[in-house]
Amino acid sequence: MNLLTLVGALPLVGAALIYLIPTKDSELVKKFALLVTSLVAIAAIFLAVGFDKSITSLQYAQSYSWIPTFNINFALGIDGISLVLILLSTILVPIVILATWNESEGGRWSVKTFYVLILILETMMVGVFAASDLFLFYVFFEAMLIPVYFLIGGYGTGNRSAAAVKFLLYSLFGGLLMLASVIGLYVIAGNQIGATFDLTQLATLEIDNQTENFLFLGFFIAFAIKAPLWPFHTWLPDAAKSATPGTSVLLLGVLDKVGTYGMIRFCLSIFPDATKTFTPLIIVLSLISILYGAFLAIGAKDIKRLIAYTSISHFGFITLGIFAMTTQAQSGATLYMFNHAFSTAALFLVAGWMATRRGSSTIADFGGLQRITPIMAWSFFIAGMSSLALPGLSSFVSEFLVLVGTYTRYPVAAIIATFGIVLAALYVLIPVQRALHGPTTPGNENLKDLNLREKVAIAPVIAIIVVLGFYPAPLLNIINPAAAQVVSQMGYSDPAPTMNGGK
Questions:
Q1: Distances (CA, A) of 226 to 234, 250, 277, 452
Q2: Sequence-distant (≥ 6) Cβ neighbours of residue 90 within 8 angstroms
Q3: How do residues 224-249 score in pLDDT, each as one tens digit?
């Protein structure tokens, strides 16, 4: 069996086997889910070890006839960008399961159902990053909505039903727009090269400008909703607040990356002329997202909403890097996706532990935690420093690459984006000061620090944040060739360095 197929199929097999475990034996269900997802993560690491960084074409490629009538194939293959996103997906899932061991209890359905949904979601996540057939990608893109909807609506807190429905409606709207564009591409392909959904062949189509623009918008809006990019972001804060911490990690850490990945894989490769037409508008939307998300985060009173707002700002940086059309910015955007996932994971996991212990997610209720729960407080602090791109932590490298790469082609946009760094210091340091320092808020005196399981869960996340801050080369060596290929296919070359008076 192809190793890529194994990585994608193993969670689905695990979900089926969980049904054989008695519903009442919830601890065994949790342990089995942790075992399966850990094996998937190990398999994904072997996938990365066997990946040839010198090859820009798709690797681990395979294709099987699926629906012959419409020439639809079950086709998979990955490049460096896909591989990095599969790695972050498979590594995060077992961490989330271990860190949020008890969050599946007390939901509308059983613990077993919760982990079945998690494992099905993992298969969907791997599939969406590995699909090289457009129709197959669309199936994974839409199918992953189902487990997320039930995870939010069935196991969340507060106004979870409304948040789940809002998430679903936004996503379905974007999916319908994409479906219209997919059908349009299929018809055009049938008239030119024969009916196909193969991504490589679709990239060779000759489409008139008006039609290409409409098809591009169908894809882009769907991806912008998923990303989320302003003004399509409004579903995110409600979903993040109502979902369990683990679900929020997967939602913001992985699923939202499907949007920015789709922009690279489909918008840029299939619609190069439309991409160039809309690039100025998208850069403006990216800058608005950076600043708007930061201002909302500064004013947030709920810690979960604050993290969601910071993500809107971060996705503005990612989108800016994608459409800057330089190798540096493109590499930085992909690395940013990986780094943001782990920074956000640390923030949401620690925030979840804080909220569970305190019985509240209001920032004002967390005064003086550094004296009461020092390990939990320091974990939140390090994650926050990574979120604001402090040098020496992972997000700094990716944000620096995005800004430098953008500056070489769009200097004004890069300068405006740097204000997001200043605002990041405010939206991170203000809650840090209010929640971790100062006098101990009444009710916090007896809060417990992280237990052994929680320490083991957060340790690899913090380690990745620190190590990649000093040594991002292993990931960049995988990403750079694929990023250069994307820029080259768009017909761009990196701006040549300039010298002022030879100095």
A1: 11, 13, 22, 35
A2: 7, 37, 40, 41, 43, 44, 122, 126
A3: 988 888 888 788 888 888 888 888 88
Both tokens of 97, joined, read 């399961």
CB atoms near residue 190 (< 10 Å): 13
**Torsion angle, alpha carbons of 452, 453, 456, 462, to 10:** -100
Length of the chain, in residues: 503
* 205 close to 269: Cβ distance less than 8 angstroms: no
CB atoms within 10 A of CB 163: 24
Region of 501 on the Ramachandran plot (φ > 0 left; ψ -120 to 50 alpha; else beta):
left
**Helix, coil or strand: residue 246:** helix
Residue 450: band (very low, low, confident or very high) from pLDDT cuts 50, 70, 90: confident
The DSSP output letter for 28 is: H
- The type of residue at 365 is D
Q: Which residues contact 17 (CB under 8 A, 6 or more apart)?
A: 32, 36
AA letter at 39? L
Of 327, 341, 485, give the one whose Cα is nearest residue 405: 327
Query: From the CB of residue 20, how many other CB atoms can be counted at a distance below 10 Å?
Result: 7
pLDDT digits (tens, 9 = 90+) for 2-11: 888 999 899 9
What is the rounded distance in angstroms from the CA atom of residue 12 to the CA atom of residue 344? 26
Neighbours of 49 (CB within 10 A): 8
- The residue whose two tokens read 């330089």 is 326
Strand 59-67 relative to strand 72-78: parallel, antiparallel, unpaired?
A: antiparallel
Phi and psi at 63, nearest 5°, equal -150, 130
